[in-house]
Design brief:
Blueprint lengths: L16 H28 L14 H82 L10 H12 L4 E2 L8 E2 L1 H10 L9 H4 L4 E3 L9 E4 L7 E7 L2 E5 L6 E5 L7 E4 L2
Parallel strand pairs: 1-2
Antiparallel strand pairs: 3-8, 4-5, 4-8, 5-6, 6-7
Helix pairs in contact: 3-4
């Protein structure tokens, strides 16, 4: 007999395959039963609300959002600034255009004023030269001019001298106010001579005579024959009587006071 025969074996007895399968089946059946019971219990309870967990806003994402907001704000500020600059530029262009137009107007007005001043100076110089020539002519022709009026010429001279001091009124024909042609017409009418009413027509009556050969009663005119703008009566001794203007009225003046252009003799 072996020396180990009396020692009991420590190995557990082997289960048969049939027993193992039966145990496994029982366990599975129990698990399935518990699962079915849990499902039935869950069906009887209130529905479970499913909660979706949003992604957490990380630091990088927050930085990107802030940068995007800053960029949008900066773009809006840039657009506003550009709009203000465009408006300012448009206003500046409009003001510059207005200033240029005003400067042109001022320059044109200055130019016209200068031209008018030059023209006035030229007229004054021309009148002065005419007076000088007339004075010399009158002095040299004194011996040939008739200073004493006779007949109808004397009556015409007397008539115009009688009106000295009367007022000048445009369109006036007497008896106390006259214009230049109205006085001349009335003077010649007093001796039976009919003259046209206006100075332009009176300057073409009778015969044209030289200013160096004047006689009392001759009609003096200013301007050109047929388009004269003023007339008066020569009364002798280098003097004339005429209705000059509203400030001086009817007066007697030397030829040098306002040298005439020409003269006609009607009597």
């Amino acid at each position: 007999m072996s020396h180990t025969a009396h020692i009991r074996s420590h190995r557990k007895p082997r289960r048969s395959a049939t027993t193992s399968i039966a145990v496994r089946a029982g366990v599975a059946s129990g698990v399935l039963g518990m699962a079915a019971a849990g499902a039935a219990s869950a069906s009887a309870a209130e529905p479970v609300t499913q909660t979706l967990e949003l992604p957490t806003l990380t630091a990088d994402l927050a930085t990107q959002v802030a940068q995007s907001a800053d960029a949008t704000q900066q773009a809006a500020a840039n657009y506003t600034l550009q709009a203000e600059r465009d408006a300012a530029a448009a206003n500046a262009a409009k003001q510059a255009k207005a200033d240029l137009a005003q400067a042109k107007q001022k320059a044109e007005a200055k130019k016209k004023a200068e031209e008018a001043r030059k023209a006035a100076a030229e007229r004054a110089a021309s009148r002065s030269a005419e007076r000088t020539v007339l004075s010399a002519t009158t002095s040299s022709s004194t011996s040939t001019s008739t200073s004493t009026a006779t007949g109808s010429a004397a009556a015409v001279v007397a008539f115009v001298k009688a009106q000295i001091g009367d007022a000048y009124v445009s369109g006036g024909t007497g008896p106390n106010s006259w214009d230049c042609s109205g006085l001349v017409q009335a003077a010649f009418k007093s001796v039976g001579v009919s003259l046209p009413r206006v100075s332009q027509d009176q300057s073409t009556q009778g015969t044209q005579v030289s200013l160096s050969n004047l006689q009392p009663g001759d009609i003096l005119y200013w301007g050109s024959a047929g388009s004269a703008y003023h007339v008066a009566v020569y009364v002798g001794d280098g003097m004339f009587v005429g209705a000059q203007n509203p400030s001086s009225g009817v007066g007697e003046h030397p030829l040098s006071y306002d040298p005439p252009t020409g003269a006609v003799r009607v009597l």
